[in-house]
């Protein structure tokens, strides 16, 4: 059973969280490079480590590498008025919003220790979310041709997204991940075309249940379901501050 080191970065500026992920990815890639050039007889005890980072961000729109700028519906002046930052990223997918009340998960995994199948990885992330929101009586599903977790995915008139996803993978090391709307202010999605999909809406656990949700409880459930889906042991990384 693989070990995954968990840390809650709490509220952190998007660029800083991205730096943390890139640093962890580089460490893993450097280890892989060293091991690649070693013979079996001279191999050192260098092993990649797996991480699961949770956080939330101040208001920010992020555009994936395959995204389109026209899906950002406001100009720079309006962004300043809204106090929203903007990043072009190296993840997959189009544009999305991150902000307070949303739980963002960044798994930095070496998929060679799990399975070398990026499609399966995305379906596994979706399964984590589907299982988590089921604890609140919400039935999540998948929308053919789209990533993330949807409600009423089989009804074109009611389908709405509760969790967006986008990842980057290099030599089977992953960064970026998922954003689950818990108590999110959904009005911020009005200024973009979320994920580039024009005819679907977004939702949150708060909106679906009619109640404010305990975010710490959701994090605990996410960790529990992540460990189950990925058949891993999740250990709190209390001895290491990844943001320093």
Portion in helices: 25-40%
Structure annotation, total helices: 5
- Radius of gyration in whole Å, from Cα? 18 Å
Helix-strand makeup class: alpha/beta
State the separation between the terminal residues, measured CA to CA.
Answer: 29 Å
Mean pLDDT: 93
Mind describing the biggest β-sheet?
Answer: 9 strands, mixed
Tell me the number of strands: 12
| N to C succession of SSEs | EHEEHEEEHEEEEEHHE
- What overall form do the CA principal axes indicate? globular
Q: Unreliable runs, pLDDT <50, ≥5 residues? A: none
Percentage of residues in DSSP E strands: 25-35%
Task: Describe the structure in your own words.
There is one protein chain. By secondary structure, this protein is α/β, with parallel strands linked by helices. Helix content is 27%, strand content 28%. It has 5 helices and 12 strands. The protein has helices spanning 14-36, 76-82, 118-134, 205-209, 215-229, and strands at residues 2-11, 50-56, 60-63, 85-88, 95-98, 102-108, 140-141, 149-151, 160-170, 173-181, 201-202, 232-236. The strands form 2 sheets. Strands 1, 2, 6, 7, 8, 9, 10, 11 and 12 form a 9-stranded mixed beta sheet that branches. A 3-stranded mixed beta sheet has the order 4-3-5, with no helix packed on it. A hairpin with a 2-residue loop joins strand 9 (160-170) and strand 10. The longest helix is centred in the first third of the chain and has 23 residues, at 14-36. The radius of gyration is 18 Å and the shape is globular. The model has no long low-confidence stretch (mean pLDDT 93).
């Amino acid at each position: 059973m693989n070990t995954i080191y968990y840390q809650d970065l709490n509220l952190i500026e998007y660029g800083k969280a991205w730096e943390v992920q890139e640093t962890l990815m580089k460490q893993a890639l450097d280890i892989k490079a060293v091991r690649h050039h070693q013979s079996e007889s001279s191999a050192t005890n260098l092993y990649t480590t797996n991480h699961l980072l949770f956080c939330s961000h101040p208001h920010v729109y992020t555009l994936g590498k395959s995204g389109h700028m026209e899906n950002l519906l406001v100009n720079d002046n309006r962004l300043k008025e809204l106090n929203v930052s903007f990043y072009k990223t190296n993840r997959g997918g189009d544009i999305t919003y991150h902000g307070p009340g949303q739980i963002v998960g960044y798994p930095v995994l070496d998929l060679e220790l799990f399975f070398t199948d990026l499609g399966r990885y995305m379906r596994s992330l979706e399964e984590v979310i589907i299982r988590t929101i089921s604890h609140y009586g919400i039935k999540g599903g998948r929308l053919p041709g789209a990533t993330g977790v949807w409600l009423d995915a089989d009804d074109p008139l009611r389908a709405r997204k509760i969790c967006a996803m986008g990842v980057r993978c290099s030599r089977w090391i992953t960064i970026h991940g998922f954003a689950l709307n818990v108590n999110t202010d959904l009005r911020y999605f009005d200024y973009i075309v979320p994920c580039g999909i024009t005819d679907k809406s977004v939702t949150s656990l708060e909106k679906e249940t009619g109640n404010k949700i305990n975010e710490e409880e959701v994090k605990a459930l996410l960790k529990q379901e992540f460990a189950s889906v990925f058949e891993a042991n999740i250990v709190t990384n209390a001895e290491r501050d990844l943001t320093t």
